[in-house]
Write a structure and sequence with these properties.
The protein is mainly beta and about 800 residues long. About 10% of the residues lie in helices and about 35% in strands. The chain has a 5-stranded mixed sheet with strand order 3-9-8-5-6, with no helix packed on it. Strands 30, 31, 33, 34 and 43 form a 5-stranded antiparallel sheet that branches. The chain has a 5-stranded mixed sheet with strand order 36-41-42-39-40. The longest helix has 13 residues.
Length: about 800
């Protein structure tokens, strides 16, 4: 007879079913232990195998472990790459993360990245506070025309395999229904696929037959008695192995979880007659927990009941992998099991079609069959249909839903979330995987609040000191570097700290002082440094390289012998001009008239002439320039109605500095010019009106007169993305390009609720079919993960 409890809502740690203070303390300590959110990282690479002359593009996604949505806290992601000797070849390559997403580019210098295997590691400084398993890794391979490993069965050997059994809950219990998962791997970590197995008792009686899936896992049910049980395994190649099951316990309880019902998870706890007298009416406690969320339920084995079932609605549990732990009356953990809750794990299905053939390129449209209610961001790798150059370690779904909770190497993780398999089969496969994971990461003896040693990094810090500072004058520092400019205060000792700023690696940083009295910009004598200091990695420990099965050997790929004949010249890449992608428009606040230069016919060459055409008076006289309003006098009723001028976030009040900035500034050099003729929202300083000018990036990078700025080149910073390019192939239809070539990379494509679709261009390689490998996420945590086979013939417009 079963006792069944149906729980209609999930009570988190604020509500306790237990009546004991010690349970309350246990729950309190757990919440303290898990209160810190951390990043769950995923990196989408354009390829994982590279030809000589190719380079690497990637997009990094950082999600919150607590909310499952793009994480807003950290802006610094670190990319490091190690060779097969686990020695660093690329150290702490900084990637800028904004709203949980960032893209970058790595030049694969042939002198450094020689033919062979590498592993790329994505992490953050903040993740050092947590388990190292939270970093994201991806193996890469640099190819050559000498040899590439291809799995071909050239000889047969009997390799070593490792067999593990995982009784559900942690142990086998006599005279009780037990569920046992089995996992078989070769010694390199790859699964023993599709083996057949037989369970026999100590009398050599065959009890049951079963077989594994392609992932090397299987599961069976039986009621054990005393004695030794043995598994006999036979692989697809006919090799035989044996494995003795874990010892059967005579006293205790066990745990089984069934997540196959559509609306709830059924958790069943069982015991036997031998145990009943020892445990009857004693309290036990079920805790279900995930990343700081907690549910608890007390239960007892009452008279005549050897099992009971607790049902919990799936919508009341956290989405993804949960952990169920059973504690005894002494609050000691005695059973544990991971299980999967599919409710709340959502994806956005995408479709794609070619809208227009532009001869040398194709216009591709991405859209969803379902309405998109929030902004979604994605990256896309476009490869030939027969490509062998892309072997991702994870999809964005498996990296977020499975990876943080699964120990060791996970074979074919994307398979679990293949949209072509049914939801029921997916739940079964994931449940089977989780049955083989043993106990969760938590050490129940080490609960409590954690002291975090590493803070989340948000940009860079420039610390400096003005050596010729006059402490009697209030001075500010004007800092400008590509992509960023700002004014910072200087203390009485001439010291300043510019925190949380955007800095590009190896970019020019310019620092000038502005005296409050004269408002003139001057070149200071200064010392400055960038923090954090770049630290070179030395080795990557405990990484298990993915290898081919030991029954296979590599053989040459003969298509690579014609590599040099297939590409015009890999050295030509150094002379290719890379144009930065057009930045997203920013609309300056509190300006009612914003003119983007790309939107107007530029009848005016000089910016000063354009300002005059808007009704302002521009007075220039021997190195001085003043802009005057034609609307009103200044706030005192007197004066010359001087307008406040802001150029690249720097307020220019001094006529000499204004002349230096505006004299010979051309309209083609600016991104936009904005006018606020009233200026009252800026206070007294803007009473006569404000003009704000943002110059183009390439203009800001040009050298300004060095008598105004102290300049130096940064030795740390972000590595921004570059426009995609590839080696110039002579023939897009040859086998080499079809196997290892790349067509396009789109690093950040946006879908939102207003447009519901997005377009991008790919080069026309005359291949009738190509694959789109798409990864991304929406602002509310819905995943995008698709492999779309795209017919390159245009589809008629709807």
């Amino acid at each position: 007879m079963k006792a069944t409890f149906f729980i209609l809502a999930l009570f988190w740690a604020t509500t306790s079913f237990a009546q004991f203070q010690s349970l309350k303390q246990l729950k309190s300590d757990y919440l303290a232990n898990e209160k810190n959110d951390y990043e769950v990282l995923f990196a989408h690479f354009n390829k994982t195998k590279f030809l000589p002359g190719e380079d690497l593009w990637l997009t990094v996604y950082a999600n919150s472990s607590h909310t499952g949505t793009p994480r807003q806290l950290t802006s610094n992601a670190l990319l490091s790459i190690y060779n097969e000797d686990n020695q660093s070849v690329l150290s702490n390559y900084q990637i800028y993360i904004e709203n949980g997403t960032g893209s970058s580019f790595v030049k694969l210098n042939k002198a450094i990245f020689k033919p062979g295997k590498y592993v790329a590691v994505i992490s953050t400084q903040y993740l050092k506070n947590f388990n190292s398993n939270y970093s994201y890794t991806q193996e890469l391979e640099m190819l050559s025309n000498e040899k590439i490993a291809v799995a071909e069965p050239t000889k047969t050997v009997k390799p070593k395999i490792f067999i593990q059994d995982f009784p559900e809950g942690g142990h086998l219990l006599k005279n009780t229904a037990n569920v046992v998962a089995l996992k078989a791997n070769y010694d390199n970590g790859s699964p023993v696929k599709n083996y057949t197995a037989v369970l026999v008792n100590q009398s050599k009686d065959t009890l049951l037959h079963f077989k594994s899936n392609q992932l090397g896992t299987s599961k069976f049910n039986f009621v054990p008695q005393e004695g030794q049980y043995t598994i006999h395994i036979k692989t697809e190649n006919g090799a035989s192995y044996t494995h003795n099951l874990s010892t059967v316990k005579t006293i205790g309880i066990n745990l089984t979880i069934n997540t196959m019902p559509q609306n709830y998870a059924a958790i069943q706890v069982n015991t036997n007659k031998s145990s009943y007298d020892k445990i009857k009416n004693k309290p036990f406690y079920l805790l279900i927990h995930k990343d700081g969320k907690l549910f608890s339920q007390e239960f007892r084995f009452e008279e005549g009941r050897n099992n009971l079932e607790i049902r919990i609605p799936k919508k009341a549990l956290p989405a993804g992998v949960n952990t169920a732990t059973v504690f005894n009356d002494q609050f000691e953990p005695i059973l544990e099991r991971l299980f999967y809750n599919s409710f709340g794990v959502n994806r956005i299905p995408l479709q794609a079609k070619v809208k227009e053939d532009l001869l040398d390129s194709l216009k591709v449209e991405i859209f969803s069959a379902k309405r998109i209610d929030t902004l979604s961001q994605m990256s896309i790798s476009v490869l030939p249909i027969a490509s062998e150059a892309y072997e991702p370690a994870h999809s964005i779904i498996s990296a977020n839903v499975l990876k943080p909770y699964v120990r060791g190497h996970l074979d074919q993780p994307s398979y679990y979330f293949n949209p072509d398999i049914s939801s029921r089969k997916r739940e079964y496969l994931i449940d089977l995987l989780l049955c083989t994971q043993g106990w969760r990461k938590i050490d129940w003896n080490q609960l409590g609040a954690k002291n975090l040693k590493y803070a989340a990094e948000n940009g860079f810090t420039i610390k400096g000191k003005i050596l010729n500072h006059n402490e009697r004058r209030k001075t500010t520092i004007f800092l400008k570097t590509p992509g960023f400019s700002q004014v910072f205060d200087v203390n009485a000792n001439g010291e300043f700290i510019a925190e949380n700023i955007y800095v590009q690696d190896s970019a020019k940083i310019s620092l000038g002082t502005v005296n409050e009295r004269s408002e003139k910009l001057k070149k200071p004598k200064i010392t400055a440094r960038i923090l954090p200091v770049k630290v070179k990695n030395t080795a990557f420990k405990n990484y298990q390289w993915k290898n081919t099965d030991p029954i296979f050997e590599g053989s040459p790929d003969f298509s690579l012998k014609n590599l040099n004949k297939s590409i015009f010249s890999t050295e030509e890449l150094d002379s290719i001009v890379i144009q930065a992608k057009k930045a997203k428009r920013e609309k300056p606040r509190r300006f009612n008239d914003v003119i983007y230069t790309e939107d107007i016919n530029q009848n005016h060459v000089l910016v000063t002439n354009f300002i005059r055409s808007k009704g302002y008076l521009v007075k220039q006289n021997i190195g001085k320039l003043v802009i005057l309003s034609n609307i009103r006098k200044n706030i005192s009723g007197k004066g010359d109605r001087q307008v406040l001028l802001i150029i690249d976030n720097f307020q220019v009040r001094d006529p000499e500095t204004a002349d230096l900035y505006l004299n010979q500034l051309f309209m083609e050099d600016i991104e936009y010019i904005a006018f606020n003729k009233q200026g009252s929202s800026f206070g007294v300083t803007g009473f006569n009106g404000i003009i704000k000018i943002k110059t183009k990036l390439d203009y800001r990078e040009r050298k300004r007169p060095n008598d105004l700025f102290y300049e130096y080149v940064s030795n740390n910073g972000y590595h921004p993305a570059k426009e995609f390019y590839r080696p110039p192939f002579k023939d897009f239809l040859n086998p080499l390009f079809k196997k290892y070539g790349a067509i396009e990379w789109v690093d950040q494509l946006i879908l939102d609720k207003n447009k519901q679709k997005a377009n991008f261009l790919i080069e026309n390689t005359w291949n009738r079919k190509v694959n789109l490998f798409i990864e991304g996420i929406s602002s509310d945590g819905k995943f995008i993960s698709e492999i779309i086979e795209l017919n390159t013939l245009p589809t008629n417009n709807e």
